[in-house]
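Weekly modeling sync, notes
Attendees: S.R. (lead), two postdocs, one rotation student

Agenda item 3: backlog of single-chain predictions. S.R. asked that every request posted to the team notebook include the full sequence so nobody has to chase files. The rotation student volunteered to paste the first one in as an example of the format we agreed on. Action items at the bottom.

Example entry:
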Amino acid sequence: MKTIRQIVPVLLLTAFTVSTSHAADKHLGLGAKPVKHAEIIIDGTRKMLDEKWIYWEGPRFGSAMPIKWKIVDDPVDGGTCLMTDDRAADGGKYGAADIVTKKAYRDFRLHIEFLVMNPKGNSGVYLQNRYEIQIQEGDKTKHGMGAVINETESPYHAFAGLGKWNSYDLQFRAARFKDGKLTEKAMVSMYFNGQKVHTNQVINKVWGGANSGVDGGNDKGFGITDSPQGLKLQCEGHDVRYRNAWIAEMNFKHADTDF
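Predicted structure, as returned to the notebook:
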């Protein structure tokens, strides 16, 4: 039988573990609070959209400033959110009306929340305007929801479903170079709705060609260049909505992005 002296330290340790766990959780999942030094990039206002974002003028760019994406009602919790609405991208014409942050990033931590309104709804979160974390309802393949596109299977089990808010929390380490030559590939770890789904996932190339993102047209996507780039959100003519997005610059000295 354990004595009081033996039980009390265990209770204190348990309380400490629960307390620190809850403290950490406030920065993960729906409604996550920004970490220290984070910059808010989507808050559901037109002012922030205009202040932080521009169109990506890639090879297929077909829209024009000001940004045509709309600020619309949050159908779940009230308030407002950002909708990927630009007719230039109708028919799944990716690259025609994608938006990208004005600021470029190398290593970073990102939190972003999204909602897919209709079946087959498609968008995407592009890390450094190169590497896509897919948003595609109904697709459970390597090209599907939550996949590091064409690099991992879709962690579809973590998807909350149509008409519900979802969250991605990512830590991203950019590719490393020495004397202009690639020495370490890009890497990402990710939580999807509070569930860890990718850990230190190496990203081999830019998929989708030149219309998809920076360096997509270089050596079939393997020609990664040593340049920070903005965070990009994809428009494909679907009703996908975003809210509560923030990003914090990081410096991952070693090839480890795990939380």
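Discussion: group reviewed the output briefly. The CA atoms of residues 78 and 256 lie 38 Å apart.
Action items: rotation student to repeat for the remaining queue; S.R. to check formatting next week.
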